[in-house]
Structures are given as C-alpha cells and as structure tokens.
User: Fold HTH gntR-type domain-containing protein from Cellulosimicrobium funkei.
Amino acid sequence: MTTTPDLRAAVGQAATAPGDAGLARRQSGARAVYDLLRGRIIDGSLAPDARLTEPVLSAELGVSRTPVREALRLLQAEALVVELPTGGVRVAPLDLADARRVYDVRARLEGLLARDACERATPDDVARLVRLVTLMDAVRDHEDEVLRVGAQFHGEIEALADNRWGSALLRQIRGHVDRYRALAARRRVGTTDHVDEHRAVADAIASRDPAAAEAAMRAHIERSAALAEQSLRGVGSATDDLP
Assistant:
C-alpha cells in the first residue's frame, strides 16, 4: 500500500498524545485508517481472504499500531473482516449464499424506502431524481461514475423516505451491499440496464404510485443480485440467464 500525506497527517502520533486532545486525535486517526481499509475492501484492492496484521499495516501506512488496531475492530464489528484463530484478521470472503442474503435484505429495505419516498416526494424531488438518471446515462461507460451516481440516487430515495428505522437497518449492511454492488456494476458498464432500472423507479415516484415504486426498486436490486452472482461464479455475461 502507498501511504498518502493526508493519512499520515490524520493519524500522526495520536496514540501517544496525552489527555482528551490525544483521545480525540486517536479516534480521528483510527477513523482515517478505517475509511482507507474499508474502501479497499469494497473496491477489491484488498482481496477476499487476504490476511491483515497490525505490524504489517502499521509499517505500510506509516502509523502506530493503535489506530490500526482500532480500525480493525471497527471493520470486524461490521463483519468486513473476520478474526483468525492464529491471530490477526482476514478480509471477509465473498460467496453466493452471503450475496443472496444481503440482496434479499437490501431489496426488502430499499423497496420500503422507495414506497415511502413516493408518498413524500415533491416535483422538485422528482426533478432531482430525473437529473441523476440522465447523468447516469451519460457516464454509463465508466464503472466508478456509475457507482457514484447510483449511490447518490439511492441516497436521495433514502433521504426522501425519512424512515429512520429503515435507514438504520440499511446502514448495518452497507459495507456488504457496497462490495457486491461493485461486482454487479462491472457487468453493467456499457449497457443501459442500470439507467432503465433507475428511470423506472423515478417514473413510478413521479406517477405517485407507491406500489410501483417499491416493485421497480426491488426489480432493480434483484437484477443487481443476479449480476453479482454471475461475477462470483466467474462466468456468463450481463445478458446471460443464471441457472
């Protein structure tokens, strides 16, 4: 790994600083390491089953072991890393059974949020969703941008829904959703599938049809589940049917 100056500045020697100021800096440093490692787990830079140890990460990142240890605890609480019997941790594996469970929960939660959003959306809200779909169409050949705009679209839906329990439950699986979402996005690059699916959600909300909004969102996520499964199997294309 290459350490960025920003990460060094964020973490520094916080672990040795005294008093409340030292505690605040240590927590901030652990968060910086957590954000970096979490991002690399989600984008695949840290591969599933890769072993992570405090001494190695500390040396690679140029920080003390304390923020690394605290960051790994946060990742373990999120189940993005799992503890090894011999010490240290490894990146949580990706597998079909887990993908199916994650997507099933996600489809139910985000379908509910889409229904709630439909009941609350104003014309200005709908216009924002439509603009995001148009932008998604413009960047459909770029995986990173597809992921970014798609996440923004889903974030808008969640904000409109204003369902704190639904949002809290979704946050609990966010990291796992993002890992599998990245797999699905790779199979959408260059297609209009994701654009059409998001447009169907926006159209249902514009039509004030909560049932249709929920159904469109669930169909979109179920399609993503199928694409993620294809990536995990390592076969097929975005247009292939799963067995």
Q: What stands out?
A: Residues 1-26, 235-243 have pLDDT under 50 and may be disordered. The domain at 16-89 is CATH 1.10.10.10 (Arc Repressor Mutant, subunit A). The chain is about 70% helix and 5% strand.
